[in-house]
Amino acid sequence: MFSAVESRRLYRQVADQIRSMIATGELAVGQRLPPERELAEKLAVSRPTIREALIVLEVEGLVHIRMGSGIYVARRHTVQPAQPEREPFEGPFELLQARSIIECAIAEEAAQRATSSHIAVLDENLQQMASVVNDTDAALGIDRAFHTAIAGIVGNAALIRFTGEIYDQRMTPYFEKLASHFEGPDSWTRAMEEHRAIRDAIAANDPAAAKQAMRTHLDRSQKRFSEGFGEELFGEDEGGRAAARRNAKI
Amino acid sequence: MFSAVESRRLYRQVADQIRSMIATGELAVGQRLPPERELAEKLAVSRPTIREALIVLEVEGLVHIRMGSGIYVARRHTVQPAQPEREPFEGPFELLQARSIIECAIAEEAAQRATSSHIAVLDENLQQMASVVNDTDAALGIDRAFHTAIAGIVGNAALIRFTGEIYDQRMTPYFEKLASHFEGPDSWTRAMEEHRAIRDAIAANDPAAAKQAMRTHLDRSQKRFSEGFGEELFGEDEGGRAAARRNAKI
DNA sequence: ATGGATGAATTGGTCAGGCCACTTGGCCAA
DNA sequence: TTGGCCAAGTGGCCTGACCAATTCATCCAT
C-alpha cells in the first residue's frame, strides 16, 4: 500500500531549521530568539508561517513562547520526541516492570495523603470506565487517566508526567492493534475491578494495601498482555477519501 | 517564588476542545474533521487560529493533516511525548520529591537482587567520588552515575533512563550555578558517606535499610539544596528581560 | 458499458496588512 | 529607594486574498 509523498510544508521546514540551530548550540539554552517579525524578514517568509513553526517547536518543548516578551529556547528539552541516543522504546515487559516499581511506590504515597476530593476523581474515572468497556480506544484513555490521577494525589507534576509517559510508551501502533484484539469487555471489566481495589485501598489510607493492589493490577495487566502475543497483525493506514474509495473497490 | 500566570491562548483552547472530542470518541479514529473554514465558522474563531490549533494537535500526533484532502483523526497518537497537561517544567523541589519516591522504590528493589558485581560497580563509583570532591562538575557526573547504577542493579532500561532523566532535569544553568556555590568538598564528602550507607544496605540485601538510606540521602540533599536558597534569587523563569534587570540589581 | 482525461470545486498553505493585549524599560515624582 | 505612568516592542488574533494539492464530476474514446 502506497500513500502520496507529501511535499514538505514551509512551516515545517522553518521549524526544522530553528530546531537544528538549537541542537548545534547556535541558539543557546535560555536564549531569546529574534522577534517573529524579524525572523519572518530574515527567513523571507510570512509571519504566520513563523508563528506556525514556533508552535511546532513549542509543542515539542524546544522553545517557550511568552506574549509580549519573546520566544526563548527552553531551559532543557526535557523528554523530547527525538532523543537520538534513546532506543525507540524499551521492551513492553521492561516498561511493565518499571511501572510496577514506580507506580507501586506512587500508590503507597498516594494512600498516605488522599482526601475525599481525590477519591471523587478516582470514582468518576471508574464510572467513565464502566460506560466504555466495549470501546478499547476510549478505555485506554480512561485507563491512563486513572493512573495519572493517582500520581495527581501526590500532587507532584513530575510524577504525573512520568506516569503518563511510561503509560504512553506502550502506545505504539503495534500495541494498539494488539490491544484491539486482546482487550474487550471482559478484560476491561477486570481492569476496572482492579482499579476499584486500588481506589479502595487509597481511600482507606492504607499504603501497604494500595501498593499490593497496584502490584496485583499491573501483574495481571502483564499477564493479559502476555496472553495477547501471538496474533497476526496487519499494517496501518490513516484513510483519506481516496483511500476510502479504494477500500470500497476491494 | 512566583512565576507569571499565563493566560490561555485561543488556539490552545481550540486544540483542547478538539482533543477532548477525540478522547471522548465524538471524533472517531480515522474520521475526517470538518474543513478549516467550517471549523472556524462553527467555533467562531478565525481560520489561522484553527490552523494553529490543528498544528498543535498534529505535532501531538492526534490528527493528520493532508493538503487538499482534509484533516483526519490519527489512527493513534503514537508515542507523542508532548503531553498537553505537562507543565513547562517542574520545580526543583518537586523533582526532588519525585526522586525520593521513585529512587527509594528502586533502591528497595535493587537490595533484593544485588550481586557482588553490582556492588563492585558502586564501590568503584565511591572511589571516583573520593577523588573529585573538589571538583563539583565532575562530582555531579559521578553522583548521577551512582544513582543510575542502582537502577542498573534492577537491570531495567526504562528505570535506568528515568533515573538519569530525572537527575538531569535539575541540571539547569541556574542549578549549576547554585551547585557551584553550595556544593564543595564538605558537602560532597557527606554525599559520599550517604552513598556508602546506601551501598552497604544494598550489599546487605536489606530492602528496608536501602530504602531508608536512600531517603535519608535525598532528604539531606534537599536540605543542602534548600540552604542554597538563602541567597537572593530570581524566579524559575527562562530569563525574561525583567528578570535580567532584577538580577542586575543584586 | 467502462476506463481515462480534463476541468471545476474544494481543501489546505502562504501571504499581506491591521489592530489589540501584554510585557518591558525608561523616566519622573514622592 | 520605590512606585506609578507612559511609550515602545512583542506576541495574539483577525480579515481577505491568492496559490498548491486533492477530489469529484463530466465528457470522450474504445
From TrEMBL, chains A, B:
InterPro entries: GntR_C, TF_FadR/GntR_C, Tscrpt_reg_HTH_GntR, WH-like_DNA-bd_sf, WH_DNA-bd_sf
Gene3D superfamilies in the cross-refs: GntR ligand-binding domain-like (1.20.120.530), Winged helix-like DNA-binding domain superfamily/Winged helix DNA-binding domain (1.10.10.10)
Pfam families: FCD (PF07729), GntR (PF00392)
CDD domains attached to this UniProt entry: WHTH_GntR (cd07377)
Source species of the chain: Rhizobium mongolense USDA 1844
Any one GO MF annotation of this record: DNA-binding transcription factor activity
Ranges where the HTH gntR-type domain occurs: 8-76
PROSITE patterns with a match to the protein in the record: HTH_GNTR
SMART domains registered for this protein in UniProt: FCD, HTH_GNTR
Alphabetically ordered keywords of this record: DNA-binding, Transcription, Transcription regulation
Name of this chain's protein: DNA-binding FadR family transcriptional regulator
